[in-house]
Amino acid sequence: MKKFVVLCFIIVVSGCTALAVNNWHNKYGKPEVKQRIVAHHSSDGQFYQSAVKPVLESRCVVCHGCYDAPCQLKLTSAAGIDRGISKELVYDGTRLVAAKPHRLFIDADSTSEWRELGFSPVLNEYPESPANNLAASLLYNTLLVKKSNPLPQVAQLGDEYDFSLDRTATCASIESYQQVAEHQPSLGMPYGFPAIDDSEFNVLQHWLMQGAKMTNLAPVDQFTAQQVEKWEAFLNQAPAKHQLMARYIYEHWFLTNIYFSDAKEQYFYKLVRSKTPPGEPIDVIATRRPFDEPNVARVYYRLQRNQASILAKNHIPLALNNKELARLHQLFIATDYTVSELPSYAVDVASNPFKSFAQIPTEVKYQFLLDHSQTIIMGFIKGPVCRGQVALNVINDHFWVAFVEPKRVANANMDEFFHQVDDLLAMPAEEQSNALPISSWVKYARLQAKFLARKTAKMNESFAGGKGLDMSLLWQGEGHNDNAALTIFRHFDSATVVKGLVGQAPKTMWVLDYSLFERIHYLLVAGFDVYGNVGHQLVTRLYMDFLRMEGEQNFLAFLPLEERKEIRNHWYRKAPKNLVEHLESNAQFNQETGIKYQTNAPKAELYSNIKQHLSAVLNTRHELANDEISQVLGELNSLPNAAVQQLAQISFILVKQQGQHKAFSLLHHNAHFNISSLLNEGAQRAPREDTASLVNGFIGDYPAVLFYLEQHQVDEFVTQFSKVKTEKDYIQLKTQFAIRRTHPEFWRYSDILHKTAKQNLQIEYGIFDYNRFENK
């Protein structure tokens, strides 16, 4: 009912918009785009960098930062602020035809072009004067409405506030905003949080009054500039072997935030395709996917300075240095193979890495993926596919990931195998961004079934009698690389991947081989278009079911033959008949494991064996320390199920100790009978099996709850938490220990949270997103 009322209101307001625009034109004149960028060293530039930008980042970017920012308002850069707002949805699971992309720094080169694409300003574009600069600034007016209509002094905000991710946003222009605000004063900014304080408001008011001058980032130091030059030279050599290497690297690194680890100051870069060679200004080749036809004679791979604020939810840091350069040269150039011709960009080739990169040996490609496995998987976790419950209900809430040893499976024999089956490894991106869901689904389901039959036959041959099917099959990170073991957490509609085998033994585990690792990347990262139609999004989601099950099957192969079916049946309780049949067909691998089990609990024993096998490279940063605070809070790992069910997906806990803050994350893992349902996940939930994990540091980018404790409160907090049985109990706990979104000093605690995170995470730090902060 509430959404219906809002919709009716929007229709009424829309009918008045034309009249309002005419009135504004009569009063102020004709609007036009302003030139706001000034020199970095100018007084206006310094004021923006030192005074304005910190306020925007700490108070505004926490909600307005990425694809899912309300009204596409990205306040992370001067270009994003100038671009403004749009009513068009990026995440839309119902569109029948792919939408036009609206990617900042890619799909338009100027503010004028964004206006042509339908974006409205949040800064004054009417004739300039100090008064006009405020009156005609949507940004200013939203702040002013919040100042005039502060949050009610209540623990929980009422129905006039809608915090759902699919809420209907008004996205009103300045001409109609006053009418909207009169009827909905709750729309003042920051939305659903306290107003910014007077000093911050005065900074923004002064800046806006003076014309909202902005500057891009300061020039980098000489060392960094030299590193950019060196790496661009390496990636743009003429021989075909070098060009193919650069294309492969780009298609796997295009989402990362690249930095030079040996530099005194850290600057971030994006690896982009450009029409222009090194030494000339970058001219980005704007395509939906990194492997789409570039329509140029030669593609150049360039490092483009990242102009935007660093956000936790899409920050994928990647360190480059001389060691990395030598490693890439060793793998791709020093390895003996020949590139006779460069592959086509035709979609059936480019969307299928087993065709486009067939000339690169499997061992080279696989080792490249393994070297930075967390980084590559972060593309799935932090890329645009990873938003929303439907996109993520393809994975369990907590599972471990290990990898097959490359020397055991990556050789000339495997190269030939992939050449024989490359047509079966086609993926949904072959249909581009407009796909027919049913026919496409049937097509790729059949291809996957045929591939699995071929793969299973080869595995039965390779591991006959269990020979070689033991712990030596798992990659040990060459004795030093902690990418060998990962943990993935799903938080209902977001996810996180960290190094190490974190938390209690999980329900499931994946073991990835080369073909599986590569397909996950090309399905969910390189091949996924967030602007694609409903068919593209559905087929992508459904195909990932196959890949998840394949990874699980690889893990089950290490268990005794008679145990596999029982465990698999538990994982897929209440699954539909067609899925059960698919699982049965997957179970044709019938070789006994080569591991000699000593107990009657082989799965638990296998987890223990894997931990021991990888012990030399296990990252332990999220393990609880041996101090008193950590050990007491560690009791939350054994919370009663009734208390766990009340938990938000991600809760951060800060404990003040001698002027410093220790940070912990409390994660709620939703249990399922199975995760095969696309649209009815609730029917598959098994809440009585939910668990929680308390870990050291920060896991998750979207905190829903912030608990803040003095050291002397820790024991009482744990005691009270263990007694929680109902929502009323949980709300009482929050009243005593949580910093709610309505807390009058919310922003002070938010600053403490981010300061602590920056100290804890260092190069991995990014601004948290508050779009999922709990209203309870």
TrEMBL record:
**Ranges in a coiled coil:** none
* Domain of life where this protein originates: Bacteria
Record protein name field: Fatty acid cis/trans isomerase
Would the keyword Glycoprotein turn up in this protein's UniProt record? Answer: no
List the signal peptide residues. 1-20
Q: Which UniProt keywords apply?
A: Isomerase, Signal
Under InterPro entries, the record lists: Fatty_acid_cis-trans_isomerase
The keyword Membrane belongs to this UniProt entry's keyword annotation = no
Q: Which GO molecular function terms does the record list?
A: isomerase activity
